[in-house]
Write a structure and sequence with these properties.
Layout lengths: L14 H38 L73 E2 L12 H11 L4 H5 L4 E9 L5 E8 L5 H10 L7 E3 L2 E13 L3
Parallel strand pairs: 1-5
Antiparallel strand pairs: 2-3, 2-5, 4-5
Length: about 230
């Protein structure tokens, strides 16, 4: 007769559970063993390192350095050429040392340089109104005759039919010469330059006078350009 097992007594169904429990226990034991070995190894290494970091004291004895004795002082020997004499004896080629402040300076000739101040040149006053006006030799009519006889009508002014008055200014000096001629008003076409050229070529005038003395006088004059 075959015996039958109860379901509680059947261990076939719990084989997997027992296997997992066994593997878990074996893993825990292995981990514990590894931790214990590494800790022991680490402690041993630390102890060895600690021992190596403390070397033994090494004492080196050196010979005592004794400084050499100082050299003997040289003996001062009296020269046979040195003679001791009395204060009353006169010496030849005696060297006399004087104070630098007491040394008299050699006679140096003193050269006086006179600086002459340049005289400021004061330009004489130019009058515009005087008691006696300057005049062209022979009067105003002779002046205009001279101008019209010497002025040549510029070709550019002719071609462009330019006409009108050119105003000029100049200074009659005390000797009657003409100075600083300039054009005050020009009409173009070369008329101003032509009138200026003729003014510069005029002969000396009779100078203007103020209180009986010749003075510099500014004079203005118009020159008419007309095509007929």
């Amino acid at each position: 007769m075959e015996a039958k097992k109860t379901p509680k007594a059947d261990l076939e169904g719990k084989k997997t559970l027992f296997l997992e429990i066994g593997m878990t226990f074996a893993l825990l034991v292995a981990l514990a063993a590894f931790n214990w070995k590494s800790y022991e190894k680490q402690e041993a290494v630390f102890t060895q390192a600690a021992v190596m970091e403390t070397p033994e004291d090494v004492i080196i004895q050196t010979a005592e350095n004794t400084p050499p004795p100082p050299p003997p002082e040289p003996e001062v020997q009296m020269s046979e050429d040195i003679q001791v004499v009395d204060d009353d004896v006169e010496l030849k080629n005696e060297l006399v040392i004087q104070d630098a402040n007491d040394i008299s300076k050699p006679d140096v000739p003193v050269v006086k340089i006179e600086i002459q101040e340049e005289e400021e040149v004061v330009e004489e006053e130019i009058f515009t109104v005087v008691e006696e006006e300057p005049s062209f030799p022979g009067g105003a009519d002779k002046m205009y005759e001279y101008l019209y006889a010497n002025i040549k009508y510029p070709q550019v002014a002719k071609e462009n039919n330019i006409t009108g008055r050119v105003y000029l200014s100049f200074v009659v000096e005390k000797d009657g010469s003409i100075a600083n001629p300039k054009v005050l008003r020009d009409i173009g076409g070369g008329c101003g330059n032509e009138a200026l050229r003729v003014i510069k070529s005029m002969p000396k005038w009779n100078p203007g006078k103020q209180r009986g003395k010749a003075v510099r006088v500014q004079y203005n004059i118009p020159v008419v350009f007309d095509l007929q």
